[in-house]
Design a protein that fits this description.
32% helix; five-stranded mixed β-sheet; 2 domains; binds coenzyme A; Peroxisomal Thiolase, Chain A, domain 1; 25% strand
């Protein structure tokens, strides 16, 4: 049994930016309401780009930052809830674009917790000897699921992608990806739904807010315990970017004071499965985290599913 580590990250957002003022021309809302309730100022919206395009761009950057070649990758996992095509799956389409030969390739849909689920399955595959090097991607075109007349949802979500290049570690090395804490409350699955042939997202906002601010911190603490680290020792915390008030409430309940806390929701909105790798990649690119830093990733949302793990910063 050998562990795995994140070698490099990459991210991509479509160029079109929608401001709160732009949205106030579509629905009865305003910048002050959006910033005070969710903390969002802007979000990126894909025009012609598909979810495969977004995923491929992010994966290409992670690959370039890793110094590895496509030929060295044997597993591609994409976390997404906005794949349009049923076959080939998003991971296979990305692998084809990147010229990755004969990979195991599959998609995971646990909505906003998807990236940590995908990262865990890649880590488990590597530990089991079923894979050696993986591209793990979170990519979403959440704009496809929006009703642009519903002010309670259209102001919240955005599009984008983030990716990690993950590879096996030497035997005996400290694991770069800690044990996952994952689960769900399927009996409460109707709290966030994306349903129909032309899918539309809707949610019980207050109920999800209460769940996230009360139930997630103890689970995130468990992920730290399983990695043998106290939350106060973390250098970084990258929770799902749902809402600034939720992020700050969880960080405060965890007793995080000195760590860098990802607040990319301000610029990017909620990008579901893309939010964690997107925010993490930006922190690393800006030099706000250093190689080897312990960072807690924690996704939560639709399902009501959650997953997280402590990783070492690439
Ligand atoms: C969605 C969320 C921002 C709504 O904020 P809230 O404070 O709970 O607001 P409510 O839904 O109670 O609505 C309060 C009022 O604001 C209104 N409102 C909703 N969206 C609005 C908008 N964009 N602009 C202005 N007013 C808005 C509502 O219509 C309601 O008006 P009313 O009192 O006249 O009926 C908040 O509940 C939230 O972030 N929940 C968590 C969602 C989440 O994280 N989901 C994860 C999905 S992965």
């Amino acid at each position: 049994m050998t562990g795995s580590r994140i070698v490099a990250l990459g991210h991509y957002q479509p160029p079109k930016v929608l401001t709160n003022d732009d949205l106030s021309k579509l629905v009865d809302t305003d910048d002050e309401w959006i910033r005070s309730r969710v903390g969002i100022r802007t979000r990126h919206i894909a025009e012609d780009e598909t979810v495969v395009d977004l995923a491929t761009e992010a994966a290409q950057k992670a690959l370039a930052n890793s110094g590895r070649s496509a030929a060295e990758v044997d597993l591609v996992v994409v976390a997404t809830c906005t794949a349009v095509e049923r076959s080939p799956n998003t991971a296979a389409a990305v692998a084809a674009r990147l010229g990755i030969r004969a990979p195991a390739a599959y998609d995971i849909n646990t909505v906003c917790s998807g990236f940590s689920y995908a990262l865990a399955t890649a880590d488990h595959a590597i530990r089991a000897g079923a894979a050696g090097r993986a591209l793990v991607i979170g990519a979403e075109r959440m704009s496809d699921t929006l009703d642009w007349t519903d002010r309670s949802t259209c102001v919240i979500f955005g599009d984008g992608a983030g990716a990690a290049l993950v590879e096996a570690q030497e035997d005996g090395a400290e694991p770069g990806i800690g044990p996952v804490v994952w689960g769900s409350e399927p009996e409460r699955g109707d709290a966030v739904v994306i349903t129909g042939w032309d899918p539309v997202i809707s949610q019980q906002g207050q109920s999800v807010f209460r769940w996230a601010t009360t139930q997630i911190a103890p689970l995130a603490r468990q992920a730290c315990e399983r990695a043998g680290i106290d939350p106060s020792e973390l250098k970084g915390f990258v929770p799902h970017q749902a809402n600034l008030r939720i992020i700050d409430a969880i960080a405060s309940r965890l007793g995080i004071t000195d760590a860098v806390v990802a607040r990319d929701v301000v610029d990017s909105g909620n990008t579901s499965a893309a939010s964690v790798p997107l925010a993490f990649s930006k922190l690393v690119e800006r030099g706000e985290l250093s190689p080897g830093d312990p960072v807690l990733l924690f996704g939560f949302g639709g399902g009501l599913a959650y997953a997280g793990q402590v990783v070492r910063c690439p």
